[in-house]
Design brief:
By secondary structure, this protein is of the alpha/beta class. The chain folds into three domains: 347 residues, FAD/NAD(P)-binding domain, CATH 3.50.50.60; 130 residues, no CATH class; 98 residues, Methane Monooxygenase Hydroxylase, Chain G, domain 1, CATH 1.20.58. It has 15 helices and 26 strands. The chain has a six-stranded mixed β-sheet, with helices on one face. A five-stranded parallel β-sheet has the order 6-3-2-10-18, with helices on one face. A four-stranded mixed β-sheet has the order 1-9-8-7, with helices on one face. The protein is globular and about 75 Å long.
């Protein structure tokens, strides 16, 4: 067995991970900061690969609306209010207060944010905000952030171990002492014990991202299984708000989030039989509004669009956006003055009355580049191609519980980014995910460095080695376990959630947690992924079953055919799940009480 010794171990190489590593190094340059990642440095994970029509980084700067020294308070209030009052208000304040510095740090690292005529960072309004706070570089804002952070890491000379899979935390005397690692894609013919790597560390920072791939329908890159959630809770830490994850309509072929201008062009929704799908009321205006409220949210009438699509898919159909024809009831002159004014603020081209002819003409007026972007990826709207859409999971709002120092409940363990929980509630303002990684990445790195600096050595105590399954009675191949978990999550724990469905999912997940998982013909990676999937899925389903109301993206039904239950004030608190048994409790953030 090999060993590596370091002071601060950063697990992951996305935006939060790299910001944490930079902060740890700058806090104490004498420390050894080790980064380890499953994929290739700078080429894997969400920050390095995600894009949308105009990706946002939410920040309150001195000149941000409405202005004044305390303008961050409006930002903090948005985070807490939009979060459904089920996030930690202290963390909301920290995000808002530190957002300006986070943006300026990125500018210093070379992120090319768009500037206005006065040289200030240009900002626009995103979903969940009344004021323009969203900075951007264009569709590739996250990618530009990743590239800038990678350059800084290389400049500092921080070591990066690529293509290695961290699968278990090493714990001694109730504290994190490092992590167990194996090479990625280790063949099933190999004995994993022969390839074990122990990385000893004085402090460990989890930055492993979300768990999108435990769903069949997701907008995540490969490898995002929620390993950090599983490792933390198996080691005794707590998860919070795991029932809240954002679902949005995405093109399965291109992974493009179909928000913003994609919806504001007001396309026609059709099924695979060529039939138009629509809802009662002013349907075109509802489609337009979906552009600014693209993640599903009970508080917005546009959640009816997500339900319409989800139910069509549940019935075995498929749903497409048709840009060649207007939706039923469309007439430009019938649109509200407010809608037409908003439309004109996005225009980069004026095609006059032609905009009344089709959604394609309107898309040319407000976002010509996305037409070319889609064509390059095999969806030629100008040739009449339809853009297929699915409701997919695209961001986890909850995660490993952290405090204001980004510490978890397990000493020595920190968490940052999508793997962390408490800073977001049910919803979040658009652009706060990228912001979260930078604010709490810096905080986690600084505090981890301070902790590691006090002990400055790797304790050479023996640590029990992880166990690996052997084929036997009751064992299942990892691929089969993953398929079953994904099927359960898509069916019972996605857009539509109800008591009997969640009970069925809990029962089957409970049975899956009792079996030994073997690689079969796959690599040992799949075993880890399957183990992770059943733990994380169990946590999500348990939390969803406990919250018998609708709030944010969590829609709870009495039956899958009916309407979602209303929000219930008694659920204005968070669900906490602790340890391997996922012991539940409720948190009231205002008085910081935990209730059984």
């Amino acid at each position: 067995m090999r060993e590596i010794c370091c002071d601060v171990l950063v697990i992951g190489a996305g935006g939060g991970a790299l910001r944490a590593a930079i902060a740890a190094c700058e806090t104490n340059p004498e420390l050894k900061v080790q980064i380890v990642t499953r994929g290739k440095f700078g080429k894997s994970g969400v920050t390095a690969t995600a894009c949308s029509d105009r990706m946002a980084f939410h920040a309150t700067l001195p000149y941000t609306e409405p202005g004044g020294e305390d303008n961050w308070r409006y930002h903090a209030d948005d985070i807490y209010r939009i979060g459904g009052y089920v996030s930690d208000p202290e963390l909301a304040e920290i995000l808002a207060k530190n957002s300006g510095k986070a943006a300026m740090d990125l500018v210093e690292y070379g992120v090319p944010f768009v500037r206005d005529a006065e040289g200030k960072l240009d900002q626009f309004i995103t979903d969940g905000s009344d004021y323009a706070r969203a900075c951007y570089t264009g569709p590739y804002t996250a990618n530009h952030i990743s590239q800038a952070l990678c350059r800084k890491v290389e400049e500092l000379g921080l070591p990066v171990l690529e293509e290695h899979y961290v699968f278990q935390l090493a714990v001694a005397d109730g504290k994190v002492a490092g992590a167990w690692v194996q090479p990625e894609r280790l063949p099933s013919s190999e004995d994993p014990k022969d390839h074990l790597l122990l990385i000893r560390a004085g402090a460990v920072i989890l930055a492993t991202g979300g768990a999108g791939e435990i769903y069949g329908r997701n907008a995540y890159p490969p490898g995002t299984m929620g390993d950090g959630y599983a490792m933390a809770v198996e080691a005794g830490a707590s998860l919070v708000n795991m029932e809240f994850m954002q679902f949005t309509l995405v093109s399965p072929k291109t992974k493009l989030a179909c928000s913003g201008s994609i919806m504001r062009a007001m396309p026609c929704f059709v099924n695979d039989k060529g039939e138009e799908l629509s809802l009662p009321g002013n349907w075109p205006e509802l489609i337009f509004a979906k552009g600014a409220t693209y993640p599903i949210s009970f508080e917005k009438a546009t959640h009816k669009i997500d339900l319409l699509v989800a139910r069509e898919l549940e019935a075995g159909g498929r749903v497409y956006l048709d840009y060649s024809t207007n939706p039923k009831g469309f007439a430009w002159e019938k649109l509200s003055q407010r809608l037409r004014s908003l439309y004109r603020t996005e225009q980069t081209l004026d095609l006059g009355k032609q905009r009344e002819e089709s959604p394609l003409v309107r898309l040319k007026e407000i976002n010509q580049p996305v037409i070319q972007w889609l064509a390059e990826r095999g969806v030629d709207l100008e040739a009449g191609d339809l853009l297929e859409v699915h409701p997919v999971v695209q961001h986890f709002q909850g995660g490993v519980w952290i405090n204001s120092r980004a510490e978890t409940k397990l000493p020595g363990l920190f968490a940052v980014g999508e793997v962390a929980g408490g800073q977001h509630g049910a919803n979040r303002p658009g652009g706060n995910a990228l912001l979260d990684c930078q604010v709490f990445g810096r905080i986690a790195g600084e505090n981890a460095a301070q902790l590691a600096g006090k002990q400055r050595c790797c304790t050479r105590r023996d640590l029990p080695e992880p166990s690996f399954p052997r084929e036997g009675n009751g064992s299942l191949p990892a691929r089969e376990v993953l398929e079953r978990v994904r099927s359960l999550m898509d069916r019972y724990a996605a857009v539509i959630r109800w008591k009997e469905g969640l009970e069925a999912a809990e029962k089957e997940l409970g049975a899956l947690r009792e079996v030994d998982i073997i690689p079969g013909t796959d690599s040992w990676d799949k075993v880890i992924e399957a183990r992770t999937a059943r733990v994380v899925a169990s946590a999500i389903v348990k939390a969803q079953a406990m919250r018998r109301e609708s709030r944010g993206p969590h829609l709870y039904f009495d039956s899958p055919e009916g309407d979602p239950r209303p929000t219930d004030p008694k659920y204005q608190r968070s669900i906490c799940l602790t340890g391997p048994e996922l012991v539940p409790s409720w948190i009231r953030w205002q008085d910081e009480e935990e209730e059984e």
